[in-house]
Amino acid sequence: MNTCSQMCTNYNGTFACSCNDGFRLTDEHSGVCKAETGLTELFFSSGEMIMGLEMGKNMRESEVVKDQERIEGLDFDPVKNMIYWVDSQSKSIKRSFIPKMHEGSEIGHPQDIQPDGKGLAKPTDISFDWVTQNLYWSEVDTAGLGASEGRIVVAKSDGRYKRTVVNKDLEMPSSIVVDPEHGLMFWADAGAKPKIEMSWMDGSKRRVIVSEKIERPEGLAVDFSMGHTIYWADSKLNTLNSMTEDGERRFVVARGTHLNRPISIDVFESMMFWASAGLGDKGPAVMQMDKFGRGVPQTVAMELPHTGSVKVFHPSRYNTSLSNPCEKTQCTHLCLLIPTGYRCKCPNNQAFQQGSKTSCDAAYEEPKPQPLVCKCQNGGFCLETQNGETMCQCEENFTGKYCDVRRDAIIGTKAGSPAAIVVPILLIIMVIVCAISLYVYYQRKRGEPKVLGGIANSVSFRQGTNVEFEGPSFVEGGNGVPQKEPAATAIADNRDFSNPMFGLRSGMGSAVDSPEAAVLAPSVVTHQSPPQPLRHRELNPASFDTGKDTQCLVAEDDSEC
Q: Could you tell me if residue 134 is inside a domain?
């Protein structure tokens, strides 16, 4: 068996590997082909949501669809970039635009293909025909008194013109996959007689291709780049297997409990990916491994609540340049591919008009509108109101029309966070310090002496006979404005500032000749900064002014001293 991940050319005694258009060999020996451009993204179900995982160095995970119930199977339309899924809990089939691949779309918004609870059958898996834009799915009807009955159903991509193409000898269909390039479809039956079957895409030419050494097949995939090889997973045997489309060249790629009960599988480039249901103390996970079984499995997503399906998305995954033979037909309702071309089919309980193989005797239904583009951001998702309008259901920390406004950072901070405690305390301290500083500043301003014209007036008393008057109010007329007077008047108007008490001494009977009076002329008055005033006891006025000279500072004839 060769290990070329895509094409292999035989030579005499050897072979050579090569790649399809848009791919290149990574080296000369491994045979691994890698896409030259584009990003590989892994879609997988996780309980009530579909997750997306960008493969590469970053391995960035994102939410594709959320707020569902129990997603089991999924597939996508590589032409219109839509994703389809089945919800086994609500028994519904839905679709949505793939986020980030449509302008303004931030999160998927589900649109019903088969409404919740319609009918008694439960859909189990889904597969999309990107050539004719038809949708195939498997379902199980357990309403009967006997064993469950399985069916393979096809409809338009929006759910119109539903038709059952396989409904006999099928007990528990667990997986389905279509090959539009060859006009074939494959499905697995995990009932009492487990098997894998194939047929044309209209349900004809049905046959069993695997019925031995198989216990519970639950996943199917087609490796279109490597000769349309079929891969499948057996959850009971814990095996991953491969074979050709006709069931030949069966090969066990991987076996063992380390596969963790694989229930879904997909293949791209040189890798296979599978969703595991969990085994023992290991929970549900998504894993990967070389598609030839080389190396060991690696876990790419773990600790999932539930996983049921996995799909690899890449622009070069499918050959979207294939021509659609149904474009030139006159099929009024359904056009299904077969290996030799196409066939027209009618919805359930309807037939062709008399003498026609293209026109059905069935009503025409208007196509459904495209799914809504949900612009909700930051984990929000769209909800429909009773009026048919949409609104964003935001996460706890976000608000706004599109959940694009973050709530207050302090409110959104976890309780007990250091920031939630330190920040308010620092703000309070800053406010208190500012208040104290302002109070001290204004108190100092109030205590400063008042200044007339910017110059202080003061009187100084010292021991001896000198009294000094400072300031323009005393020297130049009392109002701070210089007054011009004749020289003679100024000389004659000298004032006597002698101290009459200077010559008196305690205990002396007669007055002593007083010294020469000290005369201060305005021209000799000195100007200096006033010293700190001395508070003498004699100059301390009484609390009540009687108008009398109680200290006998002025000598009069009728003194009361």
A: yes
Residue 26 belongs to some domain of the structure: no
| b/e per residue 380-400 (b: at least 16 CB within 10 A) | bbbeeeeeeeeebebeeebbe
Q: What CATH number did the domain enclosing 94 receive?
A: 2.120.10.30
Task: Print the domain residue range for 146.
Answer: 36-316
Percent of the chain with pLDDT over 70: 76
CA distance 171 to 163: 18
**CB contact at 8 A, 309 and 84:** no
Residue type, 508: M
Q: Has residue 47 been placed in a domain? A: yes
User: Whose CA is closest to 246, among 199, 214, 212?
Assistant: 199
Q: Indicate the pairing of strand 14-18 with strand 7-11.
A: antiparallel
Residue type present at position 394: C
Q: Which helix (DSSP H) or strand (DSSP E) does residue 329 occupy?
A: none
Q: Express each pLDDT in 222-248 by its tens digit.
A: 999 999 999 999 999 999 999 999 999
Beta-ladder partners of 230: 222, 243
Residue 326 per-residue DSSP state: G
HEC profile of 441-472: HHHHHHHCCCCECCECCEEEECCCCCEEEECH
> Which tokens sit at 260?
């963790």
Over residues 377-432, the pLDDT tens digits come to 888 888 877 776 778 888 888 888 888 888 765 454 455 566 667 888 988 999 99
What is the spatial distance between Cα 114 and Cα 167, in angstroms, rounded to a whole number? 19
For residue range 205-220, what is the model confidence (pLDDT) as tens digits? Answer: 999 999 999 999 999 9
Number of domains in the chain: 1
Residue 358 within a domain: no
